[in-house]
Specification:
By secondary structure, the chain is α/β, with parallel strands linked by helices. The protein contains 10 helices and 11 strands. 40% of the residues are buried.
């Protein structure tokens, strides 16, 4: 299955040079590439910045927390561009993209990584929280992508591409997770945006990829969830994977662009099975994940006197 999947992705990965589709087999040189990374202050974004800096990329580091960006840039030698901003605001997204382009005179890659997770019953989520998670996870991606497309379209090709947009989504984009319905919806929206733009931008030489990690260990993403849970990881099913594993997969995608990146190949097979056996998948989620969530919430209620309507962690 892994072999056939790799062959299929290779055939889907094409170059647009001369307007003709053909397999893009040449490994791209990352040296000197200009890369914008949102959510660069922690987790996947921070680790990706370190590896790309080591590989010779020129980076625009984006996040809300300036002090963490400055610290990261200093750690990387102080050679990169620090751009604090709030990606929930369209004006900030446009300012970040235009500032980076003005500084480097080129934008080779946009990595939309910023986002946060939330676990809780939908009816207990505050409307403001629902709007904020969509503004951060989806609209933050949308506004950055919208701003970068015209710039990538008009710049000269490099290794057969005028640009590459990488959207860090989630395995939840293909199968929603109980008590994480809103988060799953934002990730599905990101995936659909990537799937729509990939053929749309093909003739312009801009490639679009989506990345689908499972629960990632050693990040702030679900730290708040785990800290307030009676059992670490109780609200996020599945085996965790390391940040390094996800970052390695993203770097490979930058070298050889592909439509979708699944750092855990077996997770894609599992999701295919969930589509074929929907009732069985629902039964498993009802009897394991949902019961565990409710049990832990009841335990928290007994110990604190207050049930947990939802918990979140900002990245």
């Amino acid at each position: 299955f892994r072999l056939s999947s790799s062959v299929f992705d290779f055939l889907c990965t094409t170059s647009t040079k001369g307007g003709v589709m053909f397999p893009f087999s040449k490994k791209r040189n990352l040296q000197g590439m200009v890369v914008i990374i949102t959510g660069a202050s922690s987790g996947i974004g921070r680790s990706l910045a370190k590896i790309l800096s080591y590989r010779g990329c020129r980076l625009a580091l984006v996040a809300r927390r300036r002090e963490l960006l400055e610290s990261l840039n200093a750690e990387l030698g102080g050679e990169h561009l620090v751009l604090p901003g709030d990606i929930t605001k369209r004006e900030d997204c446009e300012r970040i993209v235009y500032h980076a382009f003005s500084h480097f005179q080129r934008l080779d890659v946009l990595v939309c990584n910023a986002g946060y997770g939330w676990a809780g019953a939908l009816e207990k989520m505050q409307p403001e929280r629902i709007e904020d998670i969509f503004n951060t996870n989806f609209f933050g991606t949308l506004w950055c992508v919208r701003a970068v497309i015209p710039l990538m379209k008009t710049q000269p090709e490099k290794d057969g591409r005028t640009g590459h947009i990488v959207i860090v989504s989630s395995a939840c984009a293909r199968r929603g997770v109980p008590y994480m319905g809103v988060y799953s919806a934002t990730k599905a929206a990101q995936l659909n945006l990537a799937e729509a733009l990939r053929p749309e931008l093909h003739a312009d030489g801009v490639y679009v990829s989506s990345v689908h990690p499972l629960t990632v260990d050693d990040t702030e993403f679900f730290e708040g969830i785990n800290n307030r849970s009676s059992k670490p990881g109780a609200f996020v099913p599945g085996k965790k994977q390391s940040v390094e594993e996800v970052v390695r997969a993203i770097v490979c995608c930058l070298e050889r662009p592909r439509p979708e990146v699944w750092p855990k190949p077996f997770s894609r097979f599992s999701l295919i099975c969930s589509v074929i056996f929907r009732r069985l998948t629902d039964w498993v989620l009802i009897h394991f994940h949902c019961r565990r969530f409710r049990r832990d919430n009841e335990m928290r209620h007994q110990s604190s006197g207050n049930p947990m309507p939802g918990v979140a962690a900002q990245e």
